[in-house]
Amino acid sequence: MIRVSAGTARVLGLNNINCAIAPTTAYLLFGGDCPRRCGFCARSRESTSGADLLSRVTWPLYPGGEVIDRLVRAGGRGDLGRVCLQVVHDRTAWKRARRTLETIAGLCHVPVSVSCTADTLRDIRNWFDAGAQRFGLALDAAAEEVFHAVKGGGWNRTRALLHAAADQWPGSISTHLIVGLGETDRDLVARLREMTAAGITVGLFAFTPVRGTRLQHHGPPPLSRYRSLQAAHYLIRRGGGTAADDFAYDARGNLVHLGLPAEQLAAALAGGDAFRTSGCPLCNRPFYNERPGKEMYNYPRPLIQAETAAALQALFDMRKGRQGSGAGPVAASRQDVILPWGSGFVAASRRDAFEFVLKPA
């Protein structure tokens, strides 16, 4: 039996749930309770969450042979562009997942990512030898003190292993960073720069409280903060990390300037890609951080005009208690700015922020 995310099961024809946005990656979960104590994770030894829960996604059990057969057929149809094996810190789970990986790799050409813990480069090499195209080792916390408080020890060891793996398998290593665990924006940007410079792909997540976990009563990050860090991540990826040289922070480490005049920043972000799910290619993780019908932290598909306008509005909006004299995530002028979009976007000044509206072309 294999646990399959509910959305993946819908794509494979294993259930009939209403799936507003289909996953482009098939997500499979291996292992039960994890011996580690990550405060945000439903699989942690400290969690009382149900066995079929990871983040806010349910993972029903299905017969392994049927799952693999349907995966191969879905990949052949082009319904899925990737498979992701999510494996808890348990060597029995590692063995089961590796056998599944070898079977999938032998039957189809859909690339497989593995998201798992590792203690050594040999642990990681075993996954590549079994057929993985990418390996993800989650750092999660952007600062050492946050890592120790939320996950336990191993901050320096995890970072060192990530860098060693990136040297060994260039372009094939990923990690996760979670916004809202208690880090500052300066911490988060430092990790984004570090990982990007090392050639490590970052999947950015918003902290999501899950019932039964140690952090179940800890709130998610404000959307405006997440938008500013998504924009920072996008600029860093485009500039190879050097874009962050011009970022500015207040005394508490809050990001208050993204290094570009407002109109240039808005034009750079106009396509909306900054606000989409980041991480492995073709991984869109629908509703991993949000509920259907609610505002998206990570869009799992291209944004429509109104969504891009709303994302930019959140980015430019004033955030009380963080801007002091009125500087937002960017330096906002008081003049109306007509952005260079044929789509008809207009950014109109509203006191010290920008208001993004749609006007007929």
Structural notes for this entry:
The chain has two domains: 1-136, Aldolase class I (TIM Barrel), CATH 3.20.20; 137-317, no CATH class. It contains ten helices and 14 strands. It has helices at residues 6-11, 64-77, 91-107, 121-130, 144-150, 155-168, 185-197, 223-239, 262-268, 305-316; strands spanning 2-4, 25-30, 53-54, 57-58, 61-62, 82-87, 112-115, 134-136, 173-179, 201-206, 248-249, 255-257, 345-350, 353-358. It has an eight-stranded mixed beta sheet. It has a two-stranded antiparallel sheet with strand order 3-4. Strands 11-12 form a two-stranded antiparallel ribbon. Strand 13 and strand 14 form a beta hairpin. Helix 2 crosses helix 3 (91-107) and helix 8 (223-239) crosses helix 10. It is globular, with a radius of gyration of 21 Å.
- Radius of gyration, in Å, reads 21 Å
Q: How many DSSP H or I helices?
A: 10
The proportion of residues in beta strands is 15-25%
- Helix and strand pattern: EHEEEEHEHEHEHHEHEHEEHHEE
Mean pLDDT: 85
Q: Main sheet?
A: 8 strands, mixed
* Main structural class: alpha/beta
Domain count, please report it.
Answer: 2
User: What is the CA-CA span between the terminal residues?
Assistant: 54 Å
Unreliable stretches: 318-361
Strand order of the largest sheet: 5-1-2-6-7-8-9-10
Shape: globular
Helix fraction, binned, reads 25-40%
Q: How many β-strands, per DSSP?
A: 14
